[in-house]
Amino acid sequence: MPVFVLPPPAIASVAIAGSAERFAVRRIFCVGRNYAAHARELGNDERDPPFFFTKPADAVVDSGAEIPYPPLTSNLHHEIELVAAIGRAGFRIPRADALAHVWGYGVGVDLTRRDLQDQAKKAARPWDWSKAFDQSAPCGPLVPAAKTGHPEKGRIWLAVDGEVKQDGDLAELIWPIADIVSICSEAVELQPGDLIFTGTPAGVGAVQAGGKITGGVDGIGAIEVTIGQPRA
């Protein structure tokens, strides 16, 4: 048994719908600009191939949480996403085999410090500070693919304080789930516990301290988080 200088951190995890068990999270990969309308609203070309950025595993937070408004930003944005949870390892996975590596699905929100992202883009610097901050990856309970199948269409939506801001359909994904899993596995060997946030539809926008975010994906589930006051 190894002896650690400091106590090891708690294992990051996501709830599983209808179960006391939890899904241990290893890594979080996120796909940028995977809905054409969202790519256009940010001034990008929707024909670009997919690209990925990451968040730390402990950025996950359960549905129902209150998340402090993060530091260093005055423009915190919501991005609703279908989340694919990997249950089987694979490297250079053929597209035809990709869905066999998905354990289940959930509903996530990619919280983004948009002002920091805009600054990073202009300076040609990494996005880390805009995307990979504390509690920046809320994720609702996962549902096994054995129960839901692998969704190809269905409403995906998000509301702030009851007002719908994002309203799209999974059929609008530029790169469907099988493509995303296959392409991601070209760069890294996917492992059980990896989460892939698959992209957000149009309508992203700011949420203020005190704002309540609700959202969902038809046939998969829902999520609800509150943005609290900044930490003292």
UniProtKB/TrEMBL annotation:
Is Hydrolase found in the keyword set?
yes
Source taxon at top rank: Bacteria
UniProt KW keywords: Hydrolase, Metal-binding
One Gene Ontology molecular-function label: hydrolase activity
Source species, please? Mesorhizobium australafricanum
Keyword Metal-binding tagged: yes
Database matches in SUPFAM superfamilies: FAH
The cross-references to Gene3D superfamilies, in alphabetical order and at most eight, read: Fumarylacetoacetase-like, C-terminal domain
Under what name is this protein listed? Fumarylacetoacetate hydrolase family protein
Q: Which InterPro entries is this protein grouped with?
A: Fumarylacetoacetase-like_C, Fumarylacetoacetase_C_sf
